[in-house]
């Protein structure tokens, strides 16, 4: 991982602030755990009005916020966050958005040590509130913080997922992984009645319809440059050359070479694949084929398009692929038939494919 490390003085100041915030957060977590142990009767756990799908989504989003916090805690973030992560986002953005991002960068550089420590522990705190807050007030506070801070990060740290820039690509992470955090928090704020009904599963279904439709449009857009030999292959090659295990990088090198040799074929195949998935979620969302093809494509885009978010370079989050996989797991809890008995039942295939 390249970059310029902070000076010894800045690094010492950063760790001093980091440890202070760690003590405060640890104390708050300990108090919360003790409260849960001593003042919450066992019957409260048994009367949880939410389905398992709700708990899976809460655990997943809470865990991702904590992971993001630890990634933000990298010392390089003190000196390289603005120049290495935020500044490249300004290029090609509409003037109002570019102005906001530049304003946020200037505010950050006033005291980057304090800013990075604050962002680190705010994200960890959000995750802990969601994980340990039960189904009551503390989790709702965490969810509202997730929405508020998520929108801040989406604007200033992700430039609205770069959807207004030619060359944006859903496989890269557009429209922004933190936007999915925000949408997940909105779902978790819904009432138990809505979670017990089919409202949430339908919202996830339409979310995938929109995601794959947007993917096809961005991939097919002529101005994106993805139809030429260099644009997509160079992007893949730049990821492959980052410091990471060879078993992860080797498929990226192969993918870059394949795209460079036949850009029209591979980009056309991606467009058709995304349109096919959008049609599956629109017309046959409960078909096992829909779930498994989606899971496969999401995993491959998370690997080949996003490099798992954190393996190559100075990653601040694992990108959007893992959030989409989490959405699939939640949908499975609502519709268990999507990966159920069909594996052993030939008649199930015949009944659903004819």
Folded structure, characterized:
Keywords: Membrane, Transmembrane, Transmembrane helix. The chain crosses the membrane at residues 12-33, 53-71, 78-101, 113-134, 141-165, 177-195, 207-229, 264-282, 289-305, 325-344. This protein has 16 helices and no strands. The N and C termini lie far apart (52 Å). By secondary structure, the protein is mostly helical. The model is unreliable at 1-5 (pLDDT under 50). Helix 3 (52-72) runs antiparallel to helix 15 (321-334) and helix 4 runs antiparallel to helix 5. The protein folds into 2 domains: 1-189, no CATH class; 198-354, no CATH class. The radius of gyration is 22 Å and the shape is globular.
Note the topology:
Blueprint: H1 8-39, H2 42-46, H3 52-72, H4 76-90, H5 95-110, H6 112-132, H7 137-156, H8 177-188, H9 192-196, H10 199-220, H11 229-240, H12 246-261, H13 263-283, H14 288-305, H15 321-334, H16 346-353
Helix pairs in contact: 1-6, 3-6, 3-8, 3-15, 4-5, 6-7, 7-8, 10-13, 11-12, 12-13, 14-15
Given the structure, what is the number of helices? 16
Strand segment count: 0
Fraction of residues in helices?
over 70%
The parts where pLDDT drops under 50 for at least 5 residues are 1-5
Transmembrane segments: 12-33, 53-71, 78-101, 113-134, 141-165, 177-195, 207-229, 264-282, 289-305, 325-344
Keywords: Membrane, Transmembrane, Transmembrane helix
Core attributes:
2 domains; transmembrane; disordered N terminus; single chain; mainly alpha; 354 residues
Give the gist of this structure.
73% of the residues lie in helices and 0% in strands. With 354 residues, the protein is mostly helical.
């Amino acid at each position: 991982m390249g970059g310029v490390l902070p000076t010894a003085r800045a690094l010492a100041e950063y760790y001093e602030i980091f440890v202070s915030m760690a003590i405060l957060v640890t104390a708050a977590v300990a108090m919360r755990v003790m409260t849960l142990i001593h003042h919450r009767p066992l019957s409260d756990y048994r009367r949880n009005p939410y389905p398992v799908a709700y708990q899976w989504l809460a655990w997943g989003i809470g865990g991702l916020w904590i992971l993001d916090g630890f990634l933000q805690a990298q010392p390089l973030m003190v000196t390289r966050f603005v120049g290495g992560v935020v500044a490249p986002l300004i290029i090609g953005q509409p003037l109002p958005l570019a102005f906001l991002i530049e304003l946020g960068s200037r505010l950050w550089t006033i005291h980057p040590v304090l800013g990075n420590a604050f962002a680190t522990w705010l994200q960890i705190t959000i995750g802990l509130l969601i994980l340990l807050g039960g189904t009551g007030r503390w989790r709702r506070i965490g969810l509202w913080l997730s929405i508020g801070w998520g929108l801040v990060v989406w604007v200033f740290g992700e430039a609205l997922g770069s959807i207004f820039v030619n060359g944006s690509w859903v496989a890269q992470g557009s429209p922004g992984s933190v936007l999915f955090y925000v949408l997940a928090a909105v779902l978790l704020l819904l009432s138990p009645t809505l979670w017990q009904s089919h409202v949430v599963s339908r919202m996830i279904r339409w979310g995938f319809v929109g995601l794959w439709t947007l993917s096809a449009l961005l991939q097919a857009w002529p101005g994106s440059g993805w139809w030429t030999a260099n644009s997509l292959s160079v992007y893949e090659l730049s990821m492959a050359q980052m410091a990471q295990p060879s078993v992860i990088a080797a498929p990226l090198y192969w993918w870059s070479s394949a795209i460079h040799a036949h850009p029209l074929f591979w980009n056309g195949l991606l467009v058709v694949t995304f349109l096919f998935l959008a049609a599956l979620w629109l017309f046959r969302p409960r078909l096992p084929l829909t779930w498994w093809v989606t899971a496969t494509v999401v995993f491959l885009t998370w690997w080949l398009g996003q490099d798992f978010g954190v393996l190559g370079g100075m990653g601040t989050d694992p990108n959007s692929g893992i959030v989409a996989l989490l959405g699939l797991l939640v949908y499975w809890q609502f519709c268990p038939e999507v990966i159920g008995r069909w594996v052993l039942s030939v008649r199930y295939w015949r009944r659903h494919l004819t």
